[in-house]
Amino acid sequence: MLVGAGGFVGSVLRYALSGLVHRAAGTAFPYGTLVVNVTGCLAIGLLGGLTELRQVAGPELRLFLLIGILGGFTTFSTFGYETLALLRDGDLMKAVANAGLHLTLGLGAAWLGFAVAEWLGRG
Predict the structure, then answer these.
(1) CA distance 106 to 116
(2) pLDDT of residue 25
(3) Are 64 and 2 in contact (CB under 8 A)?
(4) What pLDDT, on the 0 to 100 scale, is given for residue 84?
(5) Residue 32's closest CA among 77, 75, 83?
(6) pTM, whole model, 2 decimals?
(7) Do 7 and 63 contact (CB within 8 A), yes or no?
(8) Residue 7 CB partners (closer than 8 Å, separation 6+)
(9) CA dist 113 to 25, 29, 81, Å?
(10) Percent of the chain scored above 90 by pLDDT?
(11) CB crowding 42-69: b at 16 or more within 10 Å, else e
């Protein structure tokens, strides 16, 4: 139930943020998915780090936040589909940029989130 409830919340947040960014960008490039994935990576790095290093959450809250909300929030399957669509449309450069940005910014955001959790743990 915790994972399902969190997944519902995360999915609604993903839909809202992705749509907002997509409308604001006004372009065919999938910035909405990129922002959602990078934000999700930052959040999972931070929350995962805090729960691992500081034990600030019990197993139930971890299920709700990390698996439920963030599992519903991040959109890796959408990323794959949108990248494939760019390739099928002949936009090789956009497809490569999309994959490269997700990988680089996503890993960087996860690292940053974990680093912030470590820094918070020192205080």
Answers:
(1) 15
(2) 96
(3) yes
(4) 94
(5) 75
(6) 0.83
(7) no
(8) 68, 69, 71, 72
(9) 25, 26, 27
(10) 80
(11) bbbbbbbbbbeeeeebeeeebbbbbbbb
Residue with the two structure tokens 């915790």: 2
Query: Helix (H) and strand (E) counts for the chain?
Result: 6, 0
Name 22's Cβ contacts closer than 8 Å, sequence gap at least 6: 30, 31, 32
pLDDT digits (tens, 9 = 90+) for 65-110: 999 999 999 988 889 989 999 999 999 999 999 999 999 999 999 9
Give, rounded to a whole angstrom, the gap between the first and last alpha carbons of the chain. Answer: 35
- Arithmetic mean of pLDDT over the chain: 93
